[in-house]
TrEMBL record:
Residues 90-112 are annotated as: Disordered. Residues 57-170 form the Superoxide dismutase copper/zinc binding domain. The keyword ATP-binding does not apply. GO terms for molecular function: metal ion binding. This is Superoxide dismutase family protein. Gene3D superfamilies: Superoxide dismutase, copper/zinc binding domain. Keywords: Signal. Residues 1-28 form the signal peptide. It holds the Pfam family Sod_Cu. One of its GO terms (biological process) is superoxide metabolic process. It comes from Actinomadura rubrisoli.
Length: 173
């Protein structure tokens, strides 16, 4: 069930970079792009129809910082950990439409998945809220990332699997 999504993309040069989320000395010296999205775009499990996402992505030359805030998780989710990952495609009516996890094409051969993908696992609090942050030492190539998906289970460190896709928010990386 598609939901209205609000997105904003802000490009900041050196002078304004200090205002950007996740601003660091390294990001302040480079041209950054900040993306702010509220969603989700699609919900695939009716039990999660009350979920709302807020995502802030700050991209630098060789860096991607992401902050994911989630509210409206059902009471039964309290204390549970959910996998959340950047996926290659934008959200669609079918859970699989967002494709596989986005990966760093320049990752060293044999690198663990954790180094090649962006994982944002969240743990639901008693009030149905959760928050996560992640930093990747790479920037997704144009068209190589398109959404953040929240899954039903924690991320398996060896396989990257995290169960069924519950909600998806399209992010214009």
């Amino acid at each position: 069930m598609p939901l209205p999504v609000r997105a904003a993309v802000v490009t900041l040069a050196t002078a304004g970079a200090a205002l950007a989320p996740f601003s660091t000395p390294a990001l302040a010296r480079e041209h950054t792009k900040t993306i702010i999205v509220e969603g989700p775009s699609n919900v695939y499990d009716a039990a999660y129809s009350g979920v709302r996402t807020s995502i802030v992505v700050t991209e630098g030359k060789n860096r991607t910082d992401i902050r994911l805030r989630v509210s409206g998780l059902p009471a039964a989710a309290a204390g549970k950990t959910f996998g959340a990952h950047v996926h290659r495609k934008k959200c669609g009516p079918q859970a699989a439409d967002s494709g596989p996890h986005a990966q760093n094409p320049k990752a060293r051969p044999g690198a663990p998945l954790r180094e090649k993908e962006i994982w944002l696992d969240i743990k639901a609090g008693k009030k149905g809220e959760a928050e996560s942050r992640a930093t990747a030492r790479w920037r997704a190539a144009k068209g190589a990332a398109g959404s953040i998906v929240i899954h039903a289970a924690p991320t398996n460190a060896k396989t990257g699997d995290a169960g069924a896709r519950l909600v998806c928010t399209t992010v214009p990386f």
